[in-house]
Specification:
CATH topology: Alpha-D-Glucose-1,6-Bisphosphate, Chain A, domain 4
Number of domains: 1
Strand content: 25-35%
Shape: globular
Structural class: alpha+beta
Distance between the termini: 14 Å
Number of strands: 8
Strand order of the largest sheet: 1-2-8-7-6-5-4-3
Oligomer: single chain
Radius of gyration: 16 Å
């Protein structure tokens, strides 16, 4: 059995939602046992992003400027402006903000991601799994990116979606209605 086949995400945790009218912001926090510099590289380097993130970038996100992000399953890349890149502390682009805070033994990584309220539990489940994959990548035991339809078909994603929906007090979307079980 491979590391990926043994992978089971932990319970839904480290997430909250901020609501301002129709604007909802998903906030996820994860403590990683790696330096802010190492985490920064994983957040900004296209080769690293391809290993864990739900998108690919056509250039580095480590400086202010324009890059194109292609989200898994999206037909076209999106032009995104990196508006803040203070290595290794803060990265902002589009509707996303990352903060890296040094802590004893590693980094506290915080993601703020504006998301349609209908998809908040799905987004939390997806980012939860992405953070797990990122942590394993940085540990030197990669399990491969688990995003898009592959993540949706993953039983752990279905469980996380329901757990986050319960935590946030929202009805989980019945999408996709016939998700395959591995």
């Amino acid at each position: 059995m491979t590391d990926r086949e043994r992978y089971t995400p932990g319970p839904a945790s480290g997430a909250q939602v901020r609501k301002e009218g129709e604007k909802w912001t998903l906030i996820l926090v994860r403590e990683l046992r790696h330096s802010p510099e190492k985490v920064w590289q994983a957040l900004t380097d296209p080769a690293h992003l391809r290993e864990w993130a739900p998108f690919v970038a056509d250039g580095s996100l480590d400086s202010v400027g324009t890059v194109h992000l292609t989200w898994v399953g999206a037909p076209q890349p999106l032009e995104v402006k990196v508006t803040r890149a203070d290595a290794p502390k803060v990265l902002e682009y589009s509707d996303t903000r990352w903060e890296l805070e040094p802590i004893v033994g590693g980094t506290r990584l915080t993601l703020w991601h504006n998301i349609d309220r209908r998809f908040i539990s799905m987004g939390a489940a997806g980012w939860h799994i992405c953070f797990d994959v990122l942590d394993r990548l940085l540990n030197g035991t990669p399990i491969g990116r688990l995003v898009g339809n592959e993540a949706v078909a993953f039983e752990g994603w279905q469980r996380l979606k329901a757990e986050y929906a319960s935590q946030f007090g929202v009805q989980p979307p019945n999408w996709p209605p016939n998700a395959r079980k591995p």
